[in-house]
Write a structure and sequence with these properties.
This protein has 134 residues and is an alpha+beta fold. The chain contains 1 helix and 10 strands; from the N terminus they run H-E-E-E-E-E-E-E-E-E-E. Strands 4, 5, 6, 8, 9 and 10 form a 6-stranded antiparallel beta sheet that branches.
């Protein structure tokens, strides 16, 4: 009987530990950066343990107008695309909240960097694990 109680107690402790780890892993921050010459867009993504993620960033333009666009994805569901631009010699800080009302919420965030002619200068795909060039 003592063995069974010990096993049950160990199971409860393990479940609590893994549950706490899951919640801690769910809410995290991911840094991102895209450079093109001297122009740069960079910032962080704050992932929640719910259905949202927020993108905090800055667009720094040097030689021409630059624009950063962000949108979130979960399977076939996407958020609206939000874009923020800066003229040469200017910075444009921005904050955007992305929400997908389905299980898992926002799973992937695309961040694109464009010039004044709408040419893509770079793109990143970001998850809770980090960002990769796309």
């Amino acid at each position: 009987m003592r063995v069974i109680r010990s096993l049950v107690a160990m199971g409860a402790v393990a479940a609590a530990m893994f549950g706490a780890t899951g919640v801690a892993d769910a809410a995290t921050t991911t840094a991102w950066r895209i450079e093109y010459g001297a122009s740069v867009t960079a910032g962080t993504i704050s992932w929640t343990d719910g259905r949202s993620a927020s993108v905090d960033g800055n667009v720094h333009a040097v030689s021409g107008y630059r624009e950063t666009c962000v949108w979130g994805v979960n399977g076939t569901s996407t958020t609206e695309v939000a874009c923020y631009g800066a003229n040469p010699g200017k910075d444009h800080p921005f904050y955007h909240l992305l929400t997908i009302n389905k299980v898992g919420g926002v799973q992937l965030i695309h961040i694109s960097f464009y010039d004044e002619f709408n040419h893509k200068l770079g793109q990143r795909g970001c998850t809770r694990s980090g960002c990769v060039a796309e």
